[in-house]
Amino acid sequence: MLDGFGRCIDYLRVSVTDRCSLRCTYCMPADGVPWLSHGEILSYEEILRLVRLFANIGVKKIKITGGEPLVRKGVAGLIREIKAIPGIEQVTLTTNGVALKEQLPDLLSAGVDAINLSLDTLDRERFAAITRRDALPQVLEGLEAALGAPGLNLKLNCVAQAGREDDWLALAELAKAHPIALRFIEPMPIGLGEGVTVCSEEEIRAALEGKFDPLTPYDGKLGNGPAQYYTLPDFAGKIGFISAVSHQFCDRCNRVRLTATGYLKTCLQYDVGADLRPLLAESDEVLQKAIAAAIGCKPEAHQFTADRVENREAHIMSQIGG
Ligand code: SAM
Ligand code: SF4
Fold it and tell me: Is 143 close to ligand 1, i.e. is its CB under 6 Å away?
């Protein structure tokens, strides 16, 4: 459906848990946060009912996220069932990769259409410093398994923090050798992201071009998001940038988010949308109207650079789903 600004909303990020096996400094506090209880998060049946209603109003693409989605049991089964919903064309997953190796066969057999693996560095110590867990070996096993899966659409997401040129160049070697997309995500000032020193797209490009060849803009369609992609000679894969702060793309926004507790969040930066959970006791018609009404009121744009923002989101990224 179209929102109040004429944008076509066809993409829903569904968070299945607030829990995570890592504690990335820009996302979660070192001690974690008080976890939601089992009774507070939507059941898979409730998620499926809601996704059917979103599909009725034109949502075609679903991203399963978290927290870390693979810490919740049965995610592959959920993906299989969402894929069977009429109108849903694509179901993708974003993961930190810790449990990817063991779950990849089930995810592939469930028909997952693409996997985004979040990976900021290939250096073990640096990984442990960023994520507060010494888990790079497991993540690399997951990465290797995913690289070996025939036909799997794989993207790597690197949150670009200032001064990590060596990390970017090492990750870029992966995009050179494999037909994957490596995307540099500008840290967003949400929750723990607030204090992160942002590294500009231009800086990363300069670092890449210092080692490799000039980046050439790629105009073809890749994925469902706002990334601007580039090709390089001799690269099997592509390089992308998602720079929400410095290169605002709200006019092209196609997404809304469903949190693990059932809150329909219509913009990353604001605490606005609709709490669908109490409405689960109502008819499908009532729920669908509430969903459509909230999408109709989706904010026009974020104000990441403003000092004071009304209705500012108070949750951290792992509670929202990224
Ligand atoms: N745990 C999964 C993962 O890491 O892919 C899924 C949830 S995570 C919140 C989704 C995405 O949000 C990840 O790619 C992560 O790097 C990104 N992210 C977390 N905090 C961020 C921030 N402050 N700014 C930009 N991206 C952020
Ligand atoms: Fe966990 Fe993903 Fe947040 Fe890292 S970015 S703490 S992996 S939810």
Answer: no
The rounded mean pLDDT for the chain is: 93
Within-domain flag for 4: no
Count CA atoms closer than 13 A to 153's CA, side-chain side.
Answer: 12
Lowest-confidence region among 57-66, 186-195, 214-223: 186-195
Ligand 1 centroid from CA 28, angstroms: 10
- What's the CATH code of the domain at 87? 3.20.20.70
- Ligand 2 probe mutation, 26, 68, 196, most atoms within 8 A of CB: 68
- Collapse the DSSP code of 241 into the 3-class scheme (helix H, G, I; strand E, B; otherwise coil) and give the result: strand
- Pull the structure tokens for residue 180: 């994957």
* 267 in a structural domain: yes
What is the DSSP-derived secondary structure letter of residue 165?
A: H
Ligand 1 binding pocket includes 319 (Cβ within 6 Å): no
- Closest residue by Cα to residue 119 from 182, 175, 41: 182
Phi, then psi, of 139 in degrees rounded to 5: -65, -40
Domains identified in the chain, total number:
1
β-bridge pairing 216-218 and 228-231: antiparallel
In a domain, residue 261? The reply is yes
In a domain, 60, yes or no: yes
Q: What is the pLDDT of residues 43-55, one digit of tens each?
A: 999 999 999 999 9
pTM of the model: 0.95
- For tokens 């010494």, name the residue: 134
Query: Whole domain around residue 68: which residue ranges?
Result: 11-320
Instruction: Band the pLDDT of 309: cuts 50, 70, 90.
Output: low
pLDDT one-digit tens code per residue, 196-241: 887 889 999 999 999 999 999 998 877 767 889 999 999 999 999 9
